[in-house]
Amino acid sequence: MKVLLNGGVAGRGMKILSERFGDRVSLAQMSAGDEAATIAGHLAWAEVMISINYDAAMPPAPNLKLLQIPASGLDAITLAAVPAQAAVCNVYEHEVAIAEYTFNGMLEWVVGLARRNAAFKGGDWTGTPSLGGATRGELSGMTVGCLGYGNIGRAIARRALAFDMNVMALTRNPRALEPEPTFMGGYGDLGKVLAAVDFLVICCPLTEGTRGIIGAGELAAMKDSAVVINVARGPIADEDALFAALSNGVIGGAVLDTWYQYPSADDQEIRPSKQPFHELDNVLMTPHISGWSEGQQQRRWARTGDNIEALMAGGDLINLIRPAQP
Amino acid sequence: MKVLLNGGVAGRGMKILSERFGDRVSLAQMSAGDEAATIAGHLAWAEVMISINYDAAMPPAPNLKLLQIPASGLDAITLAAVPAQAAVCNVYEHEVAIAEYTFNGMLEWVVGLARRNAAFKGGDWTGTPSLGGATRGELSGMTVGCLGYGNIGRAIARRALAFDMNVMALTRNPRALEPEPTFMGGYGDLGKVLAAVDFLVICCPLTEGTRGIIGAGELAAMKDSAVVINVARGPIADEDALFAALSNGVIGGAVLDTWYQYPSADDQEIRPSKQPFHELDNVLMTPHISGWSEGQQQRRWARTGDNIEALMAGGDLINLIRPAQP
User: What is the helix, strand, coil percentage profile of chain B, to 5?
Assistant: First the structure.
């Protein structure tokens, strides 16, 4: 089986797949910066391509049987551009890491351990109970809303229920899902959820239906203490509206891991937004690392390998987004 | 009923008890800095005393029926000094707050959201996956040891199990307790636990049996990546041995909320240890705030009021540490 790895994922993938398959596969790697003729040769050769992006600019891939996305997001994939005879699959496996990140964010918001560490290392006992320090809140009894109730939302919910939080889940197709949230609704219930939550976790795919779904009106409908957590894709929350709401105290704060602008090999100085989120004290921000754990990578490459194995053996592909069209 | 409140807790307590009991109680407050004659008058008068400390220097309290400790720790109480005719009770209610603090610490250790926030606000994309950032670990699959499996240890365990962690519990009297930990043992199993844990949470009382129980030998028995979390009392971990282990890479780090030296009204500049823990990058440290939540305070004063009510009505006292001796 001829397997082509594209982009930054290639390094790790070459090693893992080589160890697993040995001479049962031929491996090659490419990157977008390669010469056009080189890329054309790779695509003409490949039976499996592992890539987070694919669009109409890709040269013909007459032998492609599987486009395996080594991540969950499809927003860089133009499905219509993928040759009809190829199946398209993705992987998840990031939900544990993202749920842990989300709790790091909620707990830092409420408990503030790292913030207090900085002050206390400076010698400041402010806040200590014996000197009359102010009390803080508890996650227990608070309400977290999950905009999206797929793998990520449910991983957050399972932990939130153990923390005695209320969980309000929104999903395109409300139905019985484990764990059972305190409230389950469709996107039409967004207003009800916005008014109730202490934390709103954005954990749905970016689609034309969700782009900008959290705008000025939605932010104004939230408590002025509420915190938006975005671990999905930046543009699901409107960039200008979110910045304005944070600057003006419309909401309490945000924990943001996903962005509106990303670095490239040529420009690693770019700020993640045209708005200066980095100047706001009520924002915790990170460079798209919420799901980036060693466990996630090991599980994703295991699933990717499983699909190569299935393709060789004629078995069923997992996480099939689009079947091969005969 | 004549109720005397001692020390820093008095302000909040006067308000809460006054609202609850109205003219059913007479309230007074004192502090250690009052004149001796004033203190003697208060103690001669009181039927209930609410205080976190009591020792042989207290003047006679012939009318005292209840010493109510508005906290959990007994280490500032000399039980033998409390008049025999008085019952002694404490309160807990801090376990939710301390469990949330503990998870803030463990997650900041593994995910590092606040640490990464500081770098990213400075414009540094280091760690972002598309530029080849390193992966991190997951709490999932890690092992947390609870030295003590009372209210705090069990609150931590319930959350840890939802995070798919292994839980090793040590308690003086191993028995079936909810939630069921992965391993349950007595203090004689400390060596087994030390060798296995990624996080060791100290959450037992400070007694002559636990003072210094985590010393140089115990720290050397841990993984060099292990993290000690102390939410109980500083001296349960030997001050010099802990500092040496952290300085020399014997263990990976520590999250420390409880200390060896505390500020007084006269000296708020004192460092929390004679050792410069504040100079160590592998220490997260806070000023004894792990349990200091608004919910904890409301629950503690509710329980304290319940005991005053029980005393007036002849009902059963809750959290009775020592009965009145007729």
Answer: 35, 15, 45
